């Protein structure tokens, strides 16, 4: 058993060192790379993509996500395939490549099933794609079917406002507990002719 444990750690040493790099604050590029022929190449590349997403380096997230996505096969590992598609699409979207991100999410290569890994994350990315390309109603439908938190609620408030659902936009903007969400709530109150609420919220927004 001890020998098996050692072999297992040796087998995944590159992946382990990658995650340790993030924990220690070291530059990820200092971690060694794997050749494409290595059986762990896709795992390694998607781990890189995940870590770059964590620090907001979207160009590298996109590049490593692409490497993993192109190497994975659903027949080999469906969860790895979903994860690589998710981070590749996330990188593309945050690099402003909206259509390309949407194509990855809806390509058919990877099937994201409700209740299974990465389904909610994929849906949230897709909603952002729709919102950023002017299809707010489609985005609104997706956001309304998911459990949202933080900036996701703010994004939902924005599309609700754009679609004219002012009372809901106000509610979600306040629920987001964000500065931008408060601004959306203030705009909603103004359009609802709730002048006092609008004034108070605009004042709070300007003071933050």
Write the layout of secondary structure elements.
Blueprint: H1 2-11, H2 13-24, H3 41-54, H4 58-71, H5 78-94, H6 98-105, H7 119-132, H8 136-143, H9 151-162, H10 166-176, H11 179-191, H12 195-207
Helix pairs in contact: 2-3, 3-4, 3-5, 4-5, 5-6, 5-7, 6-7, 7-8, 8-9, 9-10, 9-11, 10-11, 11-12
**pLDDT under 50 segments (min length 5)?**
1-11
Instruction: Report the portion of residues in β strands.
Output: under 5%
Structural class: mainly alpha
Largest sheet, strands/sense/barrel: none
The N- to C-terminal Cα distance equals 58 Å
Mean pLDDT over all positions: 86
Give, in order, the helices and strands. HHHHHHHHHHHH
**Shape, per Cα inertia axes:** elongated
Rg, rounded, reads 21 Å
Helix content: over 70%
Number of helices: 12
Report the strand count.
Answer: 0
How would you explain this protein's 3D organization?
This protein is mainly alpha-helical. It contains twelve helices and no strands. The protein is elongated, with a radius of gyration of 21 Å. Mean pLDDT is 86; it is low at 1-11.
Précis, in short:
By secondary structure, the protein is an all-alpha fold. The chain is built from twelve helices and no strands. The longest helix has 17 residues, at 78-94.
């Amino acid at each position: 058993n001890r020998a098996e444990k050692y072999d297992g750690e040796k087998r995944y040493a590159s992946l382990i060192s990658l995650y340790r790099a993030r924990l220690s604050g070291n530059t990820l590029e200092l971690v060694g790379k794997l050749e494409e022929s290595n059986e762990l190449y896709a795992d390694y590349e998607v781990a890189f993509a995940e870590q770059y997403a964590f620090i907001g380096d979207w160009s590298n997230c996109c590049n490593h996500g692409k490497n993993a996505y192109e190497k994975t096969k659903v027949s080999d590992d469906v969860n790895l395939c979903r994860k690589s598609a998710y981070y590749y699409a996330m990188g593309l979207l945050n690099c402003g490549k909206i259509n390309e991100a949407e194509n990855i999410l809806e390509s058919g290569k990877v099937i994201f099933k409700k209740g299974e890994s990465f389904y909610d994350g994929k849906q949230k990315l897709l909603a952002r794609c729709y919102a950023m390309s002017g299809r707010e109603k489609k985005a609104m439908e997706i956001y309304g079917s998911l459990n949202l938190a933080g900036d996701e609620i703010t994004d939902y408030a924005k599309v609700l406002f754009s679609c004219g659902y002012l009372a809901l936009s106000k509610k979600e903007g306040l629920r987001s507990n964000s500065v931008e969400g408060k601004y959306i709530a203030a705009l909603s109150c103004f359009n609802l002719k709730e002048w006092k609420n609008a004034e108070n919220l605009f004042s709070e927004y300007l003071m933050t």
